[in-house]
Design goal:
seven-stranded mixed β-sheet; 178 residues; 29% helix; 6 helices; alpha+beta
């Protein structure tokens, strides 16, 4: 099964688009992506390894989910979302896909209905995925138990982690402590 993650940018855009679609549409799409379905995927022109998933909404507009496919097939990362009315591009494609943030990202665990509502309105912070930078920072904290007693006593190392809310600081600190 493929891991589906959403960036904070994608979550904010999906939250803004919620009034234009049913509450089950996004979870249905994410389920298809999780199962590996790729029939609605097309590459986005001018973007490196970015694809879009297209789905018609009840209002007749077309929802686009923009996916970073760098780690495909193990993971699908939703980096953005937008609507397109008919053949007018709208704002969906007016962005630099190569520079959309890939972190922080949050794991989707199959939430639907009310759970999806809770997830998109803040519960996503409970499923923060650790970025490569955070993994490296956690590995920097070397265990001291294997050092001789004299070196253990002198060893003091402090690290400051600074980042916006919901970006995985606590998870990184817990990894370091572990």
């Amino acid at each position: 099964m493929i891991i589906v993650r959403l960036t904070r940018t994608a979550i904010q855009e999906l939250r803004r688009l919620r009034p234009t679609m049913s509450n089950n549409l996004i979870p249905e799409i994410l389920e298809k992506l999780q199962s590996g379905e790729s029939s609605n995927l097309l590459s986005v022109r001018g973007a490196k390894q970015v694809e879009r998933y297209k789905r018609r909404t009840e209002s007749g507009a077309y929802l686009r989910l923009f996916l970073d496919q760098v780690s495909w097939p193990a993971q699908t990362l939703v980096i953005g979302a937008g609507l397109r009315q008919g053949e007018r591009p709208g704002d969906a494609y007016k962005r630099d896909f190569n520079n959309l943030p890939r972190n922080p990202c949050y794991d989707w665990h199959g939430q639907k209905g009310e759970e999806w509502d809770e997830f998109i309105n803040g519960a996503y912070n409970e499923s923060a995925g650790i970025s490569e930078e955070q993994q490296q920072a956690a590995q920097e904290a070397q265990p001291a138990h294997h050092l001789p007693q004299q070196q253990r006593e002198l060893r003091f190392h402090s690290i400051i982690t600074q980042s916006p809310p919901g970006t995985g600081k606590t998870i990184t600190a817990a990894e370091r402590a572990y």
